[in-house]
From TrEMBL:
GO terms for molecular function: indole-3-glycerol-phosphate synthase activity. The keyword S-adenosyl-L-methionine does not apply. InterPro entries: Aldolase_TIM, Indole-3-glycerol_P_synth, Indole-3-glycerol_P_synth_dom, Indole-3-GlycerolPSynthase_CS, RibuloseP-bd_barrel. Its EC number is 4.1.1.48. SUPFAM superfamilies: Ribulose-phoshate binding barrel. It comes from Pseudosulfitobacter koreensis. It comes from the Bacteria. PANTHER family: INDOLE-3-GLYCEROL-PHOSPHATE SYNTHASE (PTHR22854:SF2), TRYPTOPHAN BIOSYNTHESIS PROTEIN (PTHR22854). Belongs to the TrpC family. HAMAP family: IGPS_B. This is Indole-3-glycerol phosphate synthase. Residues 6-260 form the Indole-3-glycerol phosphate synthase domain. Pathway: Amino-acid biosynthesis; L-tryptophan biosynthesis; L-tryptophan from chorismate: step 4/5.
Length: 271
C-alpha cells in the first residue's frame, strides 16, 4: 500500500503526542482544561448566522503543504479581529506545525483577541489532544474520518462532549460519510480537497451534500473563493463554509470577509 500524506502526518503526530505527554501528563492537561476560558457556543454561532446569511468558519492559516507560505506577515490576533469585523461566525486555527506552520499559541492569541468561538484545526488521534484543545481555549475539535478508525472517532467525540466542546466531522467520500453518520455531532464537514492530489473540486460537495441526513448541518470546506461559489453551494442547501487561503491572501482580511458574505442567497424555505 502506498503511503499517503495522512499516513505521514499520523506518524509524526503520534511521536509528538508521546513527547508532549512526557512534558505534561494527562492530569496536568485536565487541570489546565478545567481552568480554561469559558466555552463559546460554536455550533450555535454557526446556525444563527447561516439562518439568514452564511455561517463562516474563517481559518487562520499561515501556510499549507500544497501552497507553501500563504501569509508572510502572519499575526493571529490581528487576523482574528479582522475576521470578526468582517462577519465570520467562528474561527478555525491551525495548530499543526510540520505541515501548516501552525502553533498551539496561535489559537490562544487568536481567541483572546476576539469573541468568536474557535475550532482547533489539527489531526486528532488521542483524547489527550482533545483535552489539550480545551486547555488552549478551543470550543470545537475536528475529527477527520479519513485518518481515524470508527472506535477512535467515537472516543474522540465522547471526550469532546464530556468537555462541552462541539465536533466537526470531516468527510471526503460516501464511505466516510456513512461512517460519520453513526457519530452524534450534527456538524458534517465536506472537504473538497482530494488528499492524494491536493486539488479541490466543489463537485465533492455537489455529490455528497445530497446524501447527508436532513438533521445534520453541512460545512463546505476548502477551495472556496467567490460569492458566486458560495451562492451555488447554497442552492444545494449548504449555508456554512470553512475558508482559509482565499481570505488570508488579502491585505485587508476584514474587507475581503465582508465582501464574501455581503449578498447571501436567500434561503428558500426558511432553512
Ligand atoms: O484554505 P482553504 O482552501 O479555504 O481550506 C480551508 C480548510 O478547509 C482546510 O485548511 C482544511 C480542511 N480540512 C483540513 C484538515 C487538516 C488541515 C487543513 C484542512
Amino acid at each position: 500500500m502506498t503511503e499517503t500524506i495522512l499516513d505521514r502526518i499520523k506518524a509524526y503526530k503520534l511521536e509528538e503526542i508521546a513527547a508532549d505527554k512526557q512534558v505534561k501528563t494527562l492530569g496536568d492537561v485536565e487541570a489546565e482544561a478545567r481552568n480554561a476560558p469559558p466555552l463559546r457556543q460554536f455550533a450555535e454561532a454557526l446556525y444563527s448566522e447561516a439562518r439568514e446569511g452564511y455561517g463562516l468558519i474563517a481559518e487562520i492559516k499561515k501556510a499549507s503543504p500544497s501552497k507553501g507560505m500563504i501569509r508572510p506577515d502572519f499575526n493571529p490576533a490581528a487576523h482574528a479581529q479582522a475576521y470578526e469585523q468582517g462577519g465570520a461566525a467562528c474561527l478555525s486555527v491551525l495548530t499543526d506545525t510540520p505541515s501548516f506552520q501552525g502553533a498551539k499559541s496561535f489559537l490562544v492569541e487568536a481567541r483572546a483577541a476576539c469573541s468568536l468561538p474557535v475550532l482547533r484545526k489539527d489531526f486528532m488521534y488521542d483524547p489527550y489532544q482533545v483535552i489539550e484543545a480545551r486547555a488552549l481555549g478551543a470550543d470545537c475539535i475536528l475529527i477527520i474520518m479519513a485518518s481515524v478508525s470508527n472506535p477512535q472517532a467515537v472516543e474522540l467525540e465522547e471526550t469532546a462532549i464530556e468537555w462541552g466542546m462541539d465536533v466537526l466531522i470531516e468527510v471526503h467520500d460516501e464511505a466516510e460519510l456513512a461512517r460519520a453518520s453513526v457519530l452524534k455531532s450534527p456538524l458534517i464537514g465536506i472537504n473538497n480537497r482530494n488528499l492524494k492530489t491536493f486539488e479541490t473540486s466543489l463537485d465533492t460537495t455537489r455529490t455528497l451534500s445530497k446524501l447527508v441526513p436532513e438533521d445534520r448541518t453541512i460545512v463546505c470546506e476548502s477551495g472556496l473563493n467567490t460569492p458566486k461559489e458560495l451562492a451555488e453551494m447554497a442552492r444545494y442547501g449548504v449555508r456554512s463554509f470553512l475558508i482559509g487561503e482565499s481570505l488570508m491572501r488579502h491585505d485587508d482580511v476584514a474587507a475581503a470577509t465582508r465582501a464574501l458574505l455581503a449578498n447571501p442567497l436567500q434561503p428558500a424555505g426558511g432553512m
